[in-house]
Every structure is written in structure tokens, then in C-alpha cells.
């Protein structure tokens, strides 16, 4: 079920919430604490409406069931499940569900790039909902509990050292989480491919204006052939298909969760001409933008 109310924002767009550094202990780029009534990452966050966040959220549930929408899919989580929402994904809380457990939020820039690569923080191809077995869940919860203790202990270390310890503890937790998410050494190996991850990050930053494989290859300093080989190895797709999939996802988000005219949706994803946008959308979804919006509403 799609929320048809217009999210907050004067232009009818989906509102994005920044990481609330003012709510962190000592202002560090992460938070960890209990889920439940009175606990949220932003006092103005429209919990019952679709919105974005520009940081990571990991929820480890102690009870359930809880229904949570992430990028057009409703996930049902229960005790022992883990939900990982990445920056830029649209999502919506279910106001009738009781969220119980522990929630970790983290700012993308809090960790060094090597850690970001090793932990697959931007693996948008992986499912948000994870269901670890008892041994892995116990290890994950123990690691998260240790991270929370370090986060809350501001008395035994000076601030700089406290932050360094937090980064190490957070890395340990994320490595366990990444191992759970990837599920196999083969997939985990692909996640570490620098060529692909650089391309993926560039597409995430530029898909709204740049749909050219050659332009991405030039900007990254790779030949087109090298880029094609790296993206195929990581995803099984061509670079063009990867770019188009990201553009289509953003178009779907805007069509479903905003009241922007279709022409403005097209312009927002790099198609100044509405007819070209409709043709592109139909080619990739076998439906028109208007029909897609109407079906959801």
C-alpha cells in the first residue's frame, strides 16, 4: 500500500532528512540506542509518510511483527530480524506497529573509505531485510551491545580516543552485518571490486543528469571496456542497464510518492522532454508513467 499523502516539502518532492548530529553523544557521526516510543532520529520526521534519509539505519528487532516499506516493497520483520536502510532509499514506518529492539544510525562520512568498501555500505543490490540464524544473531547482538557500551561511555577516554574506539567497534559490527548480508564469499569478493564501486558511487551521485557510460568511464579514468567488464562481473549487467535501472527506480519513487507533474518527474531524472521520458519509462517497465501512478493510487 502506497502512502498517497504528499510528504512535507514545498515543491511536492520527497523530503530528505540529514543525519541529526546534534542528537549524538559528543556529536559523533553515529547513534545507537533503543527503538520505541519517544525515540526517533529527527523530531520532524514524518514517520507515517514516505521520506528519505541521507544516512544509514540498521534496526535489530526484539519483537514483532513490524511492517516497514523500503523502495516499493513492504517488509515484515519480527524478533531476531535485521532491517538495513541505506542513504537515499525512500521508506515509511507503519504507525500501527510497535518498533522494539535496538537501532543504529550512522553518517556516511564517519568511517574511512577502506571500511566503507570492506563492509559494502552501498550495496543497494542487497535486500534490506536480513534473517540471521541463532548463532549469527547472537554474535551480531553481542557486537552491537559492545558498540552501544562504547558509545555511551564518555567518561573513561578523551573525546578523540573515544571517537577512534567507536569507529573500530562500529567497523567490527558492520563486518559481521556485511557478511550476513552478502551471504557468500563470492558475492563479498565482488563487493570489494574498486572499479565497480567507484562506478556505482558515481552513478548514485550523477544519474539525474548523466546517463552516458562513456562519460562515467572518462570521469573515472577507465576505458569503456574495463568498465563493462567490472560491472558485468559485479552485477551481471551492462553499465548502461545499471544506470537505467537507477533512473527508473528514482522515477518510480517520484511518481508514487509525490504529486509532481510527469514532465517534472522526467526532468528530475535527466529527461527535459516529457515524451522522451515516457518512451524511456515504457521501454523499461512496459507501462507509461501516468498508468504506473494511476495503478498505485
TrEMBL record:
SMART domains the record matches: HTH_ARAC
Pfam families cross-referenced by the UniProt entry: AraC_binding, HTH_18
Alphabetized UniProt keyword annotations: DNA-binding, Transcription, Transcription regulation
Every HTH araC/xylS-type domain range: 197-295
Record carries keyword Plastid: no
PROSITE patterns linked: HTH_ARAC_FAMILY_2
PANTHER family hit by this protein: HTH-TYPE TRANSCRIPTIONAL ACTIVATOR RHAS-RELATED
Name of the featured protein: AraC family transcriptional regulator
Organism: Streptomyces pharetrae CZA14
